[in-house]
Amino acid sequence: MKDACNYPGIGVSATGTTTPGVRLPIEALMSSSKYKLQRDLFLQGFAAVQNKDVFNRNSLFERQEIDSGFTFKDVDPTSFFAVASIHGIPYEPYDFLDTDKLGPDNWIPGSSQYGGYCHHGDILFPTWHRPYVMLLEKLIYDEAAEIVKKYPEKLKADYSKALEELRFPYWDWGSPVTLEKGVPSVFWDETVEVEAPDGKTSITNPLRSYVLPRDLGTLQLVGNSASPTKKPYIPDSNTPYTPKGYATVRNPDTNYVSNQDSTSLAVVTSCNTTYRPSLYQLFNYVKSWRQFSNHGDKKYVAIVDGKEVKPLTESYGHYTSIEVIHDGVHGDVGGSGGHMANSDIAAFDPIFFLHHCNVDRLIAIWQAINPNAWLDEADLKGSGPLDKKVINEGTFTQKPGVPLTEDTPLAPFRKSETEFWTSKGVRDVVALGYTYCELKDHIDPSKDPKSCDRYKSEELKKYIVDLYRPNVHVQNHWQLTATVKKNAAGGPYLLRVFIDIDHADEHTSTHSPNFAGQISIFARSKDTQCANCKAHPDAVVHGSVDLTNCMQALNIDLNRNSLQANQIKFVAIGTNNKKRLIWEDLVIKADLCKYDESDVDHKKWSKTHVSSVYPPGN
């Protein structure tokens, strides 16, 4: 029997300490002398994981031959390729054991069997991605532990201490630093310097990219050259599969090389127009796990006497979730043809995990502010059978149509060889061996230290709301909320929002003062093998764009109902090919709302529905 990967994440079980390690912002880990030893271990450990051979070369060949006779059962679960492939392509099982109870055809690519491990667009989005980051964290930790053994005796004690404190870092794409500087330079440097056991050296930067050791598909050749080794290449218009030997890319140019300036510009723009305003609203107004956890569901309207009525959830939270904010970062970092913008291949870009570590941080903070919000809420228990939030359409290890609960196995992430993690098991990050600075700084010593309600919730809420508040001097914030069809474009797309510019199209600059922001739809291609995604062609996404800064730039009065619905202009474009789409085929409804936040007491803030933008006149 092949041994299980069996990586429960680092913490008490791995380090032998009862004190949770602090996950650091990547800027601090990479720049502060205080964390130099941790930095040395993290970079060397991550590089070692990436450099691992995809296959266990000593394993026996089995059916369904790939890559010169090796099969998915031969893939080394501790390799970065294996970990990244959990999120999509090549749709093969992760850490498969002979004892796993599976049908003989479940793992055949292209079969009618349910496939993938996808938990996007449902209530397990936050908890499923938590052990995903833990898995890579533990793999890096284990590699770092081996490296520590090789240091000279005079350094070994210090590096052993650094190892105990080592945790995976996060990139806060909504921070004031990102707003000012864009994507940190550490994600672009070709090499990084480390103090290795045999002295100072430069190594390939594991945060910049990952070179594919196996084909994920082909690229289209540009020009008349027939040589598959020559550039330029362009990605396929639906999903930019990548051939063996090519590195992951972000906002690639015509030579299929990452464009640093374009990526940072896209991130800075959205940090201003989308990330920060949306996080501000998320922490301010959303109190239900159902609303917080994911970007949309199938049952988005209620039917009364045969007629559609207003959305089931009338609070702003229906249009702001941790997932929809997360979607935008994927679109901006990946860009047209980039890996991060395409769900099936996003995890092969190393920045994926620092992005999701930040998502986990935001989830943990929201949990601390709302300790009683969880998967057992009454509105989840009473949901109908068509509600995508609570009914999954099947994964490699779960049959379709089974309700999602806190006890649903978060496959393929194992707590032991015979047990997968569950949402209940990963609810408390401190119990998993890590924490974040904001949580550590807001512990209430008068409360039970083992309780989920151990924090100074109101104080923490004020801190995080002030951190992400887009404009502290504005009393009224304006929002456009929209419900759109997730899969109607056959892949990822962008819904851009402009004000007072009738001629806006796919060529109109997002740096125009008329550009208010965009909703990024992180959809898989129509050819995806993800069963959960294919089962919901009519899934929707609830998103929003903050209009306040754009209105100020255009000198539109924020304190009166001066903005009219006919001043809003939509432009929809495909993320990969940048071709214009018919936005009316994608948008179900859109509304204009104003938030009065003039009172010192947050509880007295109010929302006003100003008008319906689409359909007009509703």
UniProtKB/TrEMBL annotation:
Keywords annotated in UniProt: Copper, Melanin biosynthesis, Metal-binding, Monooxygenase, Oxidoreductase
GO biological process: melanin biosynthetic process
Catalytic activity: 2 L-dopa + O2 = 2 L-dopaquinone + 2 H2O; L-tyrosine + O2 = L-dopaquinone + H2O
Listed GO MF terms: metal ion binding; tyrosinase activity
Lineage top rank: taxon: Eukaryota
Cofactor(s) listed in the protein's UniProt record: Cu(2+)
Family to which this protein belongs: Belongs to the tyrosinase family.
Stated name of the protein: tyrosinase
Organism encoding this protein: Gigaspora margarita
